[in-house]
Amino acid sequence: MTATCLNQIADETAVDYWSGALSAAQSDAVEEHVFRCAACAARVEAVASMANGITALARQGRVSGIIARATLNQLQRDGVRVRIYAVAPGDVVPCAVFPDDDLVVTSIRGDFAGIEAVTLSVTGSAPMAGLVLNDVPVSAAEGELLWATPGALIRQMPTSRVTLTVTAGGRRIGEYVLDHTAR
């Protein structure tokens, strides 16, 4: 096993390996490299350690913001109770959060062709009023943006409408409405 690496595994690949997002052939290649390379083995172990911390934080209601699909999938595999709402441009989606929901994820779908980053603006009742996330990376291939909010935070909201607006370079990509019912 080597202590230094001339062909380090990319951070994104280590995360994808940990989350199970790689194909079988890609996973096999990573494992072959990791078994020979102490430096990359330590990096993959660090990713796994961080992932365990993220799972614990999600269960405590302390994860919010934009997350990757691979992270969402891993949180679900780790037993985090996730409620997902998918919205397309122009949709008005009825939604609620239940007592056992750790995390609520909104899958915001859109045509992100030729766009590298967007702005997500959230308007509605407190505690969401006036939230703006700038320079959020997007992928045309994925066609979605995943916005995570702790279930405990949403349980504090009264019955209300929350409007999500996605823009890029002054152009509106879509407007989405979550019609929230308090429980």
Question: What features would you describe in this structure?
Answer:
With 183 residues, the protein is of the alpha+beta class. It has 5 helices and 9 strands, in the order H-H-H-E-H-E-E-E-E-E-E-H-E-E. The chain has helices at 11-19, 24-36, 38-59, 69-77, 151-155; strands spanning 65-67, 82-87, 92-95, 103-109, 117-123, 131-137, 144-150, 160-168, 171-180. Helix 1 crosses helix 3. It is globular. 23% of the residues are buried.
Structural shape: globular
Strand content: 25-35%
Stretches where pLDDT is under 50 for at least 5 consecutive residues are none
Average pLDDT works out at 87
Radius of gyration: 19 Å
Cα-to-Cα separation, first versus last residue: 56 Å
Strand order of the largest sheet: 3-9-8-5-6
Could you estimate the helical fraction of the residues in percent? 25-40%
Number of helices: 5
List the helices and strands in order: HHHEHEEEEEEHEE
**Could you say which structural class the secondary elements and strand pairing correspond to?**
alpha+beta
List the SSEs and their pairings.
Elements: H1 11-19, H2 24-36, H3 38-59, E1 65-67, H4 69-77, E2 82-87, E3 92-95, E4 103-109, E5 117-123, E6 131-137, E7 144-150, H5 151-155, E8 160-168, E9 171-180
Parallel strand pairs: 2-4, 3-9
Antiparallel strand pairs: 1-7, 4-7, 5-6, 5-8, 8-9
Helix pairs in contact: 1-3, 2-3
